[in-house]
Every structure is written in structure tokens, then in C-alpha cells.
Inverse folding.
């Protein structure tokens, strides 16, 4: 199929990379840029990547060296159109299937949709989740031919096997319970939890994992239990539980393994992200150690850590924190290497190259909207980043020409004026707009006058309130007297 | 003099007997007699029989209103009040009647002179409500919205056990004046009686809707609300005030612009504030500059308005005088407050209440409440 030809031809991948990053003038091969465009598989990559921006910072991520090794999942979260197969290879287990389904539902491109759904089906066939397979088969709707329909034979055999296994597990569990061996009971419940999870019955899986808590004896057991519960909770979207169990796991003594610490930090970060607490989320992601590697692919990929952490940090941190925790953070640098665009945009923001920063953001947007955890936060985060950029831009100046500023932010003067008005009313910028000459003047409130005004105002209010109070006290006294006289 | 008082009262009761309309000459004679009486009576003797005097004055007021000559009644009533008051801070029952006469006669300035004194002593809580309500109306007539707000605020936050209509009407006006003066309606303060907090809102629903639509800042919303409730407003004789509320919304929106812009074209002002033409915007801005509500200058050639800072530098001697007198006034008020506080802490009733609530068997605590008060 056509979609896979780019794997067979690694060289065209390089060209496509260069094309999309506007560096096509570099001509790594003898083909001219226009021929590149014709030869490339641009019908898949429907999205136009970068514009021919002049002020674009150089993307020195050396696509050449990586184009050869197509297994290395590098340019996934990039401005290119989403490469579904490469994206899916970052994950494993249930989350892979869920992500593929999500992409199929939200992507506008029918080619990608079919691709995603097909991969989901294949993945499901390897497992035991018959319910989900049925749903995915419905989505495919026969578009991929007969071998991708609802395979009743397979479903029956899987379900029969599942029934048998369930009976066996139940018998074993009751056996262990009569024997009262803690360790066996714990393993029994754990196996049950795994079984339910594989079948897609997350509620039961959760209950069983939680039941193992009473039978945990060593900290290893506790951590295993916590990690299982966290996994199930993330999938069901119950992030309260995630936070609780992360705390529980972190408080376990003898928590030495750096991989597990990294996993816990990621989970905590995800929980904060869902709760829209971007600052704590950023902190957690930034604290994740590089040992995470590919050890938590059933939940999150290292690229995601970089993207989530980078975007949240940009939206929430001030300049000092951004420098200390992100740019100078050696551990996080390893993650950022995996998503060079995020790294570039953070550096651009810090160096005040707002046009290119915002451009990277725009390019990343379509792919981020396909991410199962980030999609409903993309707009908020982008808005916050844009506001911060505008505020940071105006900070060092006494007066700013709105026309230059508008071109720096790639917007019209009128639009910029509206944005500035909102920010000024919100008291985020201390300035005034000269609409006639289109200039923004910084304005620092006169402390002395403001103090006098406040003093006089306070005096008036005190006067008014005390008089009212005395009056009321008097009224109450008279009523009291009246009531008394009536009593007597 | 006291004799005369009883004689006049006798005449009044005779008039009540006959009831019906009194012939004009008799009424005029009556008015003249009472007026002379009030001006010439002696203060101590009046204070001996205040009730009779008050009822006389009330009859006087009724007659004046019946004859539709409220102007005649103003001067005598004012003298009457001054004579009846034990101190300038005393509220008599006649205050509300006097204010009513002033309102009907549209003689606002006369009313203001009485209201200059702050009231601290109230005999009859009932009179108080009417007094505050009329006081509010007088101030609205004079466009002194801050004072009006104070009076109306007194009316709705006064302690009451049962809701009365004066409070309800006062609340309606309070909402409107609050919108004009401050642009928002503050929630009830803690010391408002629970009766008021619960029930006032139910009677003033139309006004609350108006306040909500005002909060959106859009002229169209407010006008829509006005249309829906126009009959109710007319019924409550509040339509004029409501129109002023709409006007104030324009003003407030323009004022907000001064916070973000240094110069702005008239066209932009018109579109932001939802006015029809830039001519109207110019008119509004001009009015506001005259009224001292904003500081700006209009450049007609470019159609631009430049907003300036408040030129007040707080450096003039008038300002220093102002601040000085404010300080002195507040110090006096403070002293008064501590005096009242001391007075109450010596009050028998208060001590008995406090003493009862305190624990009895604190051996090591110095017991400052004498024993005899704790047994009440």
C-alpha cells in the first residue's frame, strides 16, 4: 500500500522533512525542490507544514542522520502530518488501542482514519478484549475488506477461553482463601485484576487491584498494587485515585528504583494536567528522570513528557523558573531532544523570537489535538502562552509601535489592539493605547496621588459606616426599651 | 401658652366631629393661627406636652396638603421641628412630614437644611423609615446620589421584625441609585435584618433583572429589560430614575475606555459603547467633561478624543484644608463612638446580659461584673 512506501524509501523521508521545514533550498540530493514536492507522498501529508517564514530559526535537528533509521521514533510530535504507525509504536497495551481509536475519531483525514482503525483492530486481535473489537469493527464498517469484519469465530473462542480462565481463577482464589496464605491470596486477586483488565472490564479490575492492598506485605507489593491501580484509574479517567495512589506509593519506604519514581512522577503530572493545574503538572513532568525511557509505554511516551512538560511550563512559569527548571535542566534536556520542535519553541520564547515560537505552536497544534490527554487543554495553554508572549514583549519598553508589534506576532493592528485592551483591563499590562498614532505607552501609576485618593476615600467610608452604625445602635436600643417597657 | 395649646386641640377635635370639607376661610384662619402659634410658643412648655404638639402639627400638615399650598407649611414646620428637638441630632416625628411637604412643594433646598444635621437619636423607629425614604428622594432630586444612597441604605438595613412597604419602596430606589452611582448593587451587609434579607428581593424582581442586565455592560440588554418591565416602573413612579440608569451605563462604559486608551477616535468610542453615531459619542463625552466625570479633550478636526490623567496633584492649600477638616471630623466621630461605647458598657441591661453568659466559677479570673447583675 502506498502509505508504506516511505519506509521503503528512507531518502524521501529526509526530503519530506526538509520540505516541511522550509529548508528545501538545501538540496541534499540532486532533485530540485519542485521535483521533491511532486515525488513526495504529499497526499498523505495534507497539512501544510511551515510557511516560508523568513525569520524562521534554523531547525538544526539534522534530519539526515535520522532519516535512515526509521525505527527511532523521532519526528512524531512535529509539524508534519501525523505518522500513525510511528506514533502507535511509541505505546503498548491498552493505551495504544485507545489512542488509535481517538485518532480515528478526531482526525479529519480519511486515510489516517482508516490506517488508525486498522492498526487498532490488529492490536486488539492480539489481546482478549472482545467488546472493544466489536466497536472497532463497527467503525471500520467493512471499508477494509472481509478480514476486518466482526470475526465471530474468534470472538467466541476468546470468550470461551476467558470463561474457563475465570472459573479457574475463582477456584484458585477460594482455595487460597481457605488456606489463608496471604501471598497467594494477593497473587490471586492480582491475577484476577490482570484478567479483567485484559478483557477490558476496568471497573472489576480496579476493585480487584484495590483488594490486594490488604494482603500486601512488602513495599514491592505495595508499589506494584499502586502502579496497577494508577494504570486503571488513568484509563477510566478517575484522576483523583491517581493522585491518591501516587502519594501512597511515594510514601512507601524503600522506594529506590528510579524507574518507578519516574513513572510515579509522570502519573502525578498527568493527574494535575487533567485537573487543569498546569503549574504543578509542569513541575512533575520536569522532575521526571531520564530513566523513564521506554518503561512506561503502557501509559505515556517520553515524547509526551517533553511536550506536556514543555507546554505547561511555557504557559505558567515566569522567566527565571523557565530558565532554571527547563532550559538548564539536564535531565529534561534528554526528553526535549526527542521533540526538537518543542525545544526550539521554548528557546525562541526565552530569546523573545515570538514570531517563530508562535509559528511552531501553530504547526504542532493539529497533532496535539489528536493526543488523548492534551486535546482539551491545547486551546487554554496556547492562549496563556500567547498572552505571556505579548506581556513579555511590552515589558522592557516605554513606548511600542503597534505596527511592528503586530508584524512580530503575525496579526493585524486591530486584532492586536483588541488583545491588548483585554490584557490592560485585566491589569496584566500597565500601559495605555494611543489609538490615533497606534502606539502603546507604558504607564506607571502615580503612587502619591493614588495614596491620597485612597486616604480620602477611606475617610469617607469610615465616616459613613460609623454614623450608620451609631444610628442602628440607637434604633436597637429604642426597640429594646420599647420591648422592655411592654414587658413591664 | 399651654392653655392655648389645649384650646387649639379642642378646636381640632371639634373639626373632627364635623369632618367633611372645611370651608376655605376657616381653613386659612386655622392655618394662620397655628403658624403664629408655632412661631411664638415657648420651647419648655412644648416639651411638656409633646404628643399634643405633634398631633397639632400633623393636622396642620394635612390641611396644608388638602389646600394644595404646601409652600405655606414649610417655614412653620421647620420652626416646629427646631423647637421640638432636644438636640440637633434628634429625630422627631415631624421630620418626615416636613420632608414630605418639601418634596410636594419641590422646595428641595429647604429640606436639605434640616438634613444637614446627622441624626443619632431616634424616638420612634417607625418615623425613621419614612424619614430615610423621603430624605433619599430629596437627595435624588438634588442629584446628590451619594447622600441618597446613604439614606436609602439606612432604610433597608434598619432593624426590623416585619417587612414594611416603605422599606420595599426604598429598596427599589436603592437598587436604581446604586446602579447610577457605583455601577453595581452590593449584596446585603451582615447587619441587615433577616426579614429584609429574605423578603426584599421578592418584591423588587424587575429591578433585580435590571441590575443583572446592567452588569453585562451592554446597552441593548438594559434597554430590553426596560421594555419588558416598563409598566412596573411607571407604576412605581421610577421611570425617570430608570432612564438615568441607562444613561449612566453609557458613562460607565466611556469611563472604562479611559483606563485603556490615551487617544481614541469618536467612531471607535461610538462602536464600543454601542452608540449610533460619532456625533452622539461626542455629545456624551462633552457632557462628561463638563460634569467633571472624565478628563479629556476633543479634537474635532481628527475626530479624536485624548484622555488625560486626573490633574489633581494634591498639592494645593484647598486640598490640605479639605484633608485637615476631614481628619478633624473623623476624630470627633471617633470620640463620639468611644463615648457611646462607654455608655453602653455601664448600661444595666447590657451588663446583665453579658454577666449571664459568662462562666460563673472562674476563681482565678478577676470578676468585673458585680454580683447583683448576674442574678437577673
Amino acid at each position: 500500500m502506498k502509505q508504506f512506501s516511505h519506509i521503503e524509501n528512507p531518502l524521501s523521508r529526509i526530503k519530506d522533512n526538509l520540505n516541511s521545514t522550509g529548508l528545501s533550498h538545501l538540496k541534499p540530493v540532486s532533485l530540485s525542490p519542485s521535483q521533491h514536492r511532486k515525488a513526495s507522498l504529499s497526499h498523505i501529508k495534507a497539512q501544510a507544514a511551515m510557511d516560508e517564514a523568513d525569520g524562521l530559526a534554523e531547525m538544526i535537528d539534522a534530519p539526515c542522520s535520522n532519516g535512515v533509521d526509521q525505527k527511532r521514533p523521532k519526528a512524531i510530535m512535529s509539524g508534519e502530518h501525523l505518522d500513525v504507525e510511528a506514533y502507535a509504536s511509541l505505546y503498548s497495551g491498552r493505551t495504544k488501542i485507545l489512542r488509535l481509536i481517538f485518532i480515528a475519531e478526531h482526525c479529519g483525514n480519511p486515510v489516517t482514519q482508516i490506517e488508525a482503525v486498522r492498526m487498532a483492530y490488529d492490536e486488539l486481535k492480539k489481546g482478549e478484549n472482545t467488546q472493544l473489537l466489536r466497536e472497532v469493527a463497527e467503525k471500520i464498517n467493512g471499508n477494509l475488506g472481509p478480514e476486518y469484519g466482526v470475526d465471530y469465530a474468534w470472538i467466541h473462542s476468546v470468550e470461551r477461553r476467558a470463561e474457563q480462565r475465570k472459573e479457574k481463577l475463582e477456584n484458585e482464589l477460594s482455595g487460597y482463601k481457605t488456606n489463608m496464605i496471604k501471598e497467594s491470596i494477593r497473587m490471586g486477586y492480582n491475577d484476577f485484576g490482570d484478567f479483567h483488565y485484559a478483557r477490558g472490564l476496568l471497573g472489576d479490575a480496579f476493585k480487584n487491584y484495590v483488594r490486594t492492598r490488604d494482603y500486601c506485605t512488602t513495599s514491592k507489593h505495595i508499589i506494584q498494587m499502586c502502579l496497577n491501580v494508577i494504570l486503571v484509574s488513568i484509563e477510566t479517567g478517575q484522576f483523583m485515585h491517581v493522585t491518591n495512589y501516587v502519594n501512597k506509593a511515594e510514601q512507601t519506604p524503600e522506594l529506590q528504583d528510579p524507574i518507578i519514581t519516574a513513572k510515579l512522577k509522570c502519573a502525578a503530572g498527568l493527574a494535575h494536567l487533567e485537573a487543569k493545574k498546569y503549574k504543578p503538572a509542569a513541575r512533575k513532568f520536569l522532575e521526571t528522570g531520564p530513566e523513564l525511557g521506554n518503561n512506561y509505554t503502557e501509559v505515556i511516551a517520553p515524547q509526551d513528557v517533553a511536550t506536556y512538560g514543555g507546554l505547561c511550563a511555557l504557559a505558567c512559569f515566569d522567566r527565571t523558573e523557565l530558565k532554571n527548571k527547563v532550559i538548564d535542566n539536564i535531565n529534561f534536556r534528554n526528553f526535549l531532544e526527542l521533540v526538537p520542535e518543542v525545544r526550539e519553541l521554548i528557546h525562541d520564547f526565552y530569546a523573545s523570537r515570538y514570531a517563530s515560537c508562535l509559528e511552531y505552536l501553530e504547526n504542532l497544534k493539529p497533532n496535539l489535538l489528536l493526543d488523548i490527554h492534551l486535546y482539551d487543554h491545547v486551546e487554554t495553554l496556547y492562549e496563556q502562552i500567547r498572552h505571556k508572549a505579548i506581556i513579555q514583549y511590552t515589558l522592557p519598553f516605554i513606548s511600542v509601535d503597534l505596527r511592528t508589534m503586530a508584524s512580530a506576532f503575525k496579526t493585524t493592528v486591530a486584532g492586536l489592539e483588541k488583545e491588548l485592551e483585554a490584557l490592560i483591563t485585566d491589569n496584566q499590562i500597565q500601559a495605555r493605547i494611543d489609538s490615533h498614532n497606534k502606539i502603546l505607552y507604558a504607564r506607571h501609576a502615580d503612587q502619591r496621588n493614588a495614596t491620597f485618593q485612597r486616604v480620602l476615600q477611606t475617610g469617607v467610608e469610615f465616616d459613613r459606616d460609623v454614623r450608620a452604625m451609631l444610628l442602628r445602635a440607637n434604633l436597637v436600643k429604642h426597640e429594646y426599651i420599647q420591648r422592655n417597657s411592654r414587658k413591664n | 401658652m399651654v392653655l392655648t395649646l389645649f384650646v387649639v386641640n379642642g378646636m381640632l377635635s371639634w373639626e373632627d366631629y364635623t369632618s367633611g370639607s372645611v370651608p376655605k376661610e376657616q381653613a386659612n384662619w386655622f392655618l394662620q393661627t397655628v403658624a403664629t402659634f408655632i412661631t411664638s410658643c415657648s420651647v419648655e412648655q412644648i416639651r411638656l406636652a409633646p404628643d399634643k404638639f405633634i398631633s397639632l402639627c400633623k393636622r396642620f400638615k394635612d390641611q396644608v396638603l388638602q389646600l394644595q399650598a404646601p409652600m405655606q407649611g414649610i417655614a412653620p414646620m421647620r420652626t416646629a421641628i427646631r423647637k421640638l428637638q432636644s438636640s440637633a441630632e434628634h429625630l422627631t416625628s415631624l421630620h418626615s412630614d416636613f420632608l414630605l411637604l418639601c418634596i410636594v412643594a419641590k422646595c428641595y433646598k429647604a429640606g436639605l437644611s434640616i438634613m444637614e444635621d446627622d441624626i443619632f437619636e431616634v424616638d420612634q423607629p417607625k418615623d425613621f423609615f419614612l424619614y430615610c425614604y423621603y430624605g433619599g428622594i430629596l437627595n435624588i432630586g438634588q442629584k446628590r446620589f451619594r447622600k441618597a444612597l446613604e439614606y436609602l441604605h439606612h432604610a433597608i438595613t434598619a432593624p426590623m421584625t416585619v417587612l414594611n412597604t416603605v422599606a420595599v419602596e426604598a429598596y427599589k430606589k436603592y437598587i436604581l441609585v446604586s446602579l447610577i452611582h457605583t455601577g453595581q448593587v452590593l449584596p446585603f451587609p451582615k447587619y441587615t435584618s433577616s426579614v429584609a434579607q429574605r423578603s426584599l428581593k421578592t418584591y423588587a424582581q424587575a429591578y433585580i433583572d435590571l441590575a443583572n442586565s446592567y452588569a453585562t455592560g451592554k446597552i441593548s440588554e438594559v434597554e430590553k429589560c426596560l421594555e419588558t418591565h416598563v409598566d412596573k416602573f411607571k407604576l412605581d413612579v421610577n421611570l425617570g430614575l430608570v432612564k438615568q440608569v441607562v444613561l449612566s451605563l453609557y458613562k460607565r462604559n466611556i469611563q472604562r475606555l479611559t483606563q485603556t486608551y490615551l487617544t481614541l477616535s469618536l467612531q471607535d468610542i461610538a462602536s464600543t459603547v454601542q452608540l449610533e453615531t460619532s456625533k452622539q459619542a461626542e455629545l456624551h463625552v462633552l457632557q462628561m467633561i463638563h460634569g467633571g466625570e472624565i478628563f479629556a479633550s476633543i479634537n474635532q478636526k481628527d475626530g479624536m478624543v485624548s484622555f488625560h490623567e486626573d490633574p489633581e496633584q494634591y498639592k494645593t492649600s484647598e486640598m490640605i484644608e479639605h484633608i485637615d477638616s476631614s481628619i478633624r471630623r473623623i476624630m470627633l466621630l471617633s470620640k463620639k463612638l468611644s463615648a457611646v461605647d462607654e455608655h453602653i458598657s455601664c448600661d444595666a441591661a447590657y451588663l446583665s446580659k453579658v454577666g449571664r453568659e459568662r462562666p460563673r466559677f472562674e476563681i482565678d479570673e478577676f470578676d468585673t461584673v458585680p454580683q447583683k447583675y448576674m442574678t437577673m
User: Anything to note?
Assistant: The first strand of chain B starts at residue 90 and ends at 91. Chain B has four domains: 1-123, 145-260, 267-310, 322-354. Residues 322-354 of chain B form one domain.
